[in-house]
Amino acid sequence: MSERYETLAARIYERFGEQMRQVPSNCGELTYELDKDDLVSIATALRNEADFGFEMLMDVCGVDYLNYGSDEWTTNEATDSGFSRGVEREPVILDEADEFDAKRFAVVYHLLSLQHNFRLRLRVFTGTDNPPIVHSVVDIWNGANWFEREVFDLYGILFEGHPDLRRILTDYGFIGHPFRKDFPLVGNVEVSYDADEGRVVYKPVSIEQRTLVPRVIRDDNRYEADLKDANDG
């Protein structure tokens, strides 16, 4: 880590103490984990206080840590277990669990200080609540509006206080949240346009078996039928 970022880390520790817990990094970046109840106060301080000045929110990302650290793929040869498991599982309409693992879902915030040329990453776990929920930071960084809608759409994480929390990438009638690790790879429904009804309709998923081995088609005069027959004759 550079001397500049070591100085920033010291300022953060002096100001916030154990409220911001530094996450080890192999690439010299600063990442901190904090409780979701402290998110708004810490984010406000990081934006407003002169020692930090993180006036820009670059991105907000969702993360699903379901089965994190377990290896389902073989490393030396191919396996069909991963794809088959995703396709053959029963469709997931809604996760009916009473609660989640406390560190299954996280929201990650990427901050930029233009005045100090610093970058900072914050990570907040949603806890055991179902549905997962954290407080919106739209009132702190207005640019979080669409970012939080994207996280809600793809991961089903709710943002308390968001002014217009609705889907932004998938269709309004889409079922489930496609970036969750337990979402079936084939989805829950198929969407198509019905010319007879004059509207988009939803149907059960149908999977057609297909060969995944690519065919090699050669466009070469050695394979021209006339030339081949002439050589043979």
What are the key terms here?
single chain, 233 residues, alpha/beta, Beta Polymerase, domain 2, 5-stranded mixed beta sheet, two-stranded parallel ribbon, 9 strands, 22% helix
How would you describe what is shown here?
The chain is α/β, with parallel strands linked by helices and 233 residues long. The protein has a single domain (3-186), classed as Beta Polymerase, domain 2, CATH 3.30.460. 22% of the residues lie in helices and 21% in strands. A hairpin with a 4-residue loop joins strand 8 and strand 9. It is extended, with a radius of gyration of 25 Å. Residues 82-93 have low confidence and may be disordered.
Question: What shape does the CA trace take?
Answer: extended
Total separate domains: 1
- Ranges where pLDDT stays below 50 over 5 or more residues in a row are 82-93
Question: How much β-strand is present in the residues?
Answer: 15-25%
Count the DSSP helices. 5
Main-sheet strand order equals: 1-2-5-4-3
Q: Which class best fits the helix and strand makeup?
A: alpha/beta
Separation of the first and last Cα atoms? 75 Å
CATH architecture: 2-Layer Sandwich
Number of DSSP strand runs: 9
**What is the H-and-E element order?**
HEEHEHEEEHEEEH
Name of the top-level CATH class: Alpha Beta
Helix content: 10-25%
User: Describe the biggest sheet?
Assistant: 5 strands, mixed
Mean pLDDT: 83
Q: From the 3D structure, determine the CATH topology.
A: Beta Polymerase, domain 2
Provide the CATH superfamily: NADH:ubiquinone oxidoreductase Nqo5 subunit
Radius of gyration, rounded? 25 Å
